[in-house]
Amino acid sequence: MEKFLELLFAGLALGARYALVALGFVVIFRATGVINFAQGGFVALGAYLAYTAINTWEWPFALSVVTAMLLMAVIGALIYVSILRWLVGRPVLTLIMVTIGILIALQQVTFQIWGPRLLPLGDPWGLDTVEFLGVPVRVTNIWTMVLTAIAVAILFAYFRYTRMGVAMRATALDQEAALAQGISVRRVSALSWAIAGALAALAGVMIAAEGSGVTPTIEFVALAAFPAIILGGLESPGGAVIGGVVIGVAQQLTGGYQPDFLPVGLSILVPYLVMGVVLLVRPYGLFGEPDVERV
Amino acid sequence: MIATRRNRALAVRERDRLRLFPSAWHKTLLVALVIVFIATPLQLDDSWLEVLARCGVAAIGAIGLNLLTGYTGQASLGHAAFLGVGTYTAAWFGVQQELPFVVWLPLCAVLGGLAGAVIGPFALRLRGNYLAIVTLGLLYVAQYVFVNWDSLTGGSSGTRTAAPVEILGLDFDDLQIGAESFTRRQGLVWLIWAVVFVVAILAKNIVRTRPGRAMQAVRDRDVAAEVIGVSLARYKISAFALASALAAVAGGLYGVVNRQVSPDAFGGVEGLLLSIQYVAMIIVGGLGTIGGSIVGAVVVSGLPQVITRISTNTDLPFVQGDAGGSSGILDVFVLNQFLFGFLIVAFLLFEPRGLAGVWLRIRRYFQGWPFSY
């Protein structure tokens, strides 16, 4: 039972990180219909920016994280304005390949600036643990869950109560109808990329704090977040959070309880297996909207 | 009068589009290509032949992916997984069981095709983004299987994959015709490009006949295709099986060229990069063209190899680690990555039809000359 609880908490924290990354995907997809393969690059770049703010400029941790989020928001919006805006209405494969191109460029930029080494982030939590329900839980993981919950709450309140948030929901439902109501779809899209950038930076900091620091490999977490967004449904922010948590918990539990007769490494595969099974039953994910096909 | 004649030259007759060689010009081109094919390995040194052999392998895989993505409209990021299936089929039947080339190569195609058909149930339910991410999941399945199946893949240390390449007494590994003997690389270039030729003709025949038209109908609008009587189940699954079969053939030959293969190459992140390269090939070459797949494969797979080769001999500006030893801002690997990303984005933005589209434009210009615009 103790092992289960420990794995469960670790899974929830991992799921919270996936949820942050997945939310970034979903926000962009709702506004622009693009799956942003460069999200992993955003995550890494955000973590590196936070690292620079903390260690080079020696700013306080919280201020650094907020700065990194703001910078990534600007970068995200710039990428939309400079590249993706010109590709509206292109085929799915085109959009995927362009964002992969951006990912490769971002990879090389971060690599040129910060190099391949593991850089200690310098977060205030370190390896501290506290006792919770009789099992040790890492402080980092608690903060991750709390911050994710706050970010999700702010985002959902924004969608629900602000003028721009409602405009974003309208655009997600029907771009043309939104345009007809006087909503600037371009501004909504740019803002969506900005939000995704900020979420990616927060996710990057949380991932780096959980591991021992920032490395180029943290962008791969985005690959593990794909099953989360597909599981929840591409259009659904709530689905992204639930999908992320399900995938995170499933991954940790598999890692902990993997039967001996199966070779190691199953936990990397599990997100995709869960996704495959769900998709065979519900082809648009748990909360996605089925396309209405007209000939 | 002249204008009328020109216009007739511009018009494409429907009958001609169904032919393998629409005009005498195409037959001449074929003869020229055969001469180039025979002569090239005699002229180039081994390091360039290695580049050519790898381009040929890529061309086979790219033709397969183009049948799937360019003609049938199904996005796939899992192509690398099927290359792996081919490589290990060749390693098992060719190297470990010592079966001859004419047995293991078809076996690659059969097993690769069966593996590809596994996506069928997903392909029928999903499209676009969802399908792309399911095929991405394949790479993780491939990684898990390949890394853990020690007896087949040698685990993380890799295994020998140089399957025998002897056909009718001609051993392309150590080719001897009469008194002439040739190097391994020369033999492999001949062998691989002969396979490229066979695969290209096969693919061309598929796309210009009934199944090809059905595939293109599925690409243009799958619901509409089903309404006019095209079986989606049949053509989507066949397209995946066909693409994977060709990928597996390419994988088998990749093993032969490489001799030793590590299982990481086909799964996970490495596999994703490999798959992206194949997608880039068909984008650069031209979606929905067979010739374009080959040209795209040569450009995307050849360019980085050529740059690496040149940089070891000459001093390039802004590039570090080349022969000149100058300290530049980029190293060769980064330069290649940038070029790769630039090629993809540039073609998608400015010429979505790829090099085949560029060629078409040039041809139109001269056909309509001097009345072209």
What would the keywords be for this entry?
heterodimer; A: 295 residues; mainly alpha; two-stranded antiparallel ribbon; 3% strand; B: 373 residues; two-stranded antiparallel sheet; 17 helices; 8 strands; globular
Describe this structure in words.
- The complex is a heterodimer of chains A (295) and B (373).
- Chain A has 295 residues and is mostly helical.
- Chain A has a domain at 13-216.
- Chain A has eleven helices and two strands; from the N terminus they run H-H-H-H-E-E-H-H-H-H-H-H-H.
- In chain A, helix 9 (221-232) packs parallel to helix 11 (266-281).
- The radius of gyration of chain A is 19 Å and the shape is globular.
- The model of chain A has no long low-confidence stretch (mean pLDDT 88).
- In chain B, the strands form four sheets. In chain B, strands 1-6 form a two-stranded antiparallel sheet. In chain B, strands 2-3 form a two-stranded antiparallel ribbon. A two-stranded antiparallel ribbon of chain B has the order 4-5.
- In chain B, a hairpin with a 2-residue loop joins strand 2 (166-167) and strand 3.
- Chain B is globular, with a radius of gyration of 22 Å.
- Mean pLDDT of chain B is 86; it is low at 1-6.
- Classes of the chains: A mainly alpha (295), B mainly alpha (373).
- The A-B interface holds A 29, 35, 83, 86-87, 90, 92-94, 96-98, 100-102, 104-105, 107-108, 111-112, 220, 223, 226-227, 230, 234, 263-266, 268-269, 272-273, 275-276, 279-280, 283-285, 293-295 and B 69, 75, 77, 121-122, 125-126, 128-130, 132-134, 136-137, 140-141, 143-144, 147-148, 221, 223-224, 227, 268-269, 272, 276, 279-280, 283, 329, 334, 337-338, 340-342, 344-345, 348-349, 352.
- For the termini of chain A, the CA-CA separation is 55 Å
Q: Beta fraction of the residues of chain B?
A: under 5%
Arithmetic mean of pLDDT of chain B = 86
Provide the low-confidence segments of chain B as ranges.
1-6
- Which chains share the greatest interface? A-B, 45 and 44 residues
The N- to C-terminal Cα distance of chain B equals 19 Å
Q: Helix amount of chain A, in percent?
A: over 70%
What is the share of helical residues of chain B?
over 70%
Multimer state: heterodimer
Largest sheet of chain B: 2 strands, antiparallel
Rg over C-alpha atoms of chain A, rounded to the nearest angstrom: 19 Å
Classify the beta-strand content of chain A into a percent band: under 5%
- CA-based shape of chain A: globular
State the order of secondary-structure elements of chain B, H for helix, E for strand: HHHHHHHHHEEEEEHHHHEHHEEHH
**Shape designation of chain B:** globular
Quick check: average pLDDT of chain A?
88
Structure classification of chain A: mainly alpha
Structural class of chain B: mainly alpha
Poorly predicted runs of chain A: none
Largest sheet strand order of chain B = 1-6
